[in-house]
Amino acid sequence: ANYGPNPICKGCLSCSKDNGCIRCQHKLFFFLRREGMRQYGECLHSCPSGYYGLRTPDMNRCSRCRIENCDSCFSRDFCTKCKTGFYSHRGRCFRGCPAGFAALEELMECVEGCEVGQWSEWGTCSRNNKTCGFKWGLETRTRQIVKKPAKDTIPCPTIAESRRCKMAMRHCPGGRRPAKTKDKKKKKKNLMERAQKQHSIFLATDKTSQ
């Protein structure tokens, strides 16, 4: 029977004009729809968003998902699809993935990420493979990849980093001075020789003019 413009009794075994379906056919799910102060029963092939199908010997029902930010669920405590902007992880919904897990954007799921170990101590301060002869150098520390990610598309965090450091010994004991120092001395010597040459030319010109 139909009551009004909508077939509210479709799929029902028993139906009321005011309350809609009271009992459903064997394979359908009973869903109690609320509209303002009014509520009425419907018989559906699948439950709407935010509900899951619960089969019982008496009658199949649509039961509400009890998981926060869940759009559709498999059972009361296991979400299969989260609302927009949330990531699915072990049947729950998260705004951001828990520690040790990475976000897979195309599926909006949290998968096992890249696990790295602790940082090592900072290495020796050096420059050009030398630990002396310069004022500043670089020191480096590293860490190992303990567990590779489940997906190759998920990057691992950096496993090496460097920072500027001041060398303990600026001059190498018993060694040659850096090439830069030699270049400075050579340049200074050339300038002095050029100045002396120009001075000699000036003196010779001055004597000729006298």
TrEMBL record:
Residue ranges with Basic residues bias: 172-189
Recorded hits in PROSITE patterns, A to Z, give: TSP1
Q: What is its main location?
A: secreted
Asked whether the UniProt record includes Secreted among its keywords, one would answer: yes
| Keyword Disulfide bond belongs to the record | yes
Pfam short name (any one): Furin-like_2
- Subcellular location as annotated: Secreted
> What GO terms in the biological process aspect are recorded for it?
Wnt signaling pathway
Which of UniProt's keywords are assigned here? Developmental protein, Disulfide bond, Glycoprotein, Heparin-binding, Secreted, Sensory transduction, Signal, Wnt signaling pathway
- Tell me the protein family, please: Belongs to the R-spondin family.
Spell out the protein name for this chain. R-spondin-2
Q: Write down the species.
A: Sinosuthora webbiana
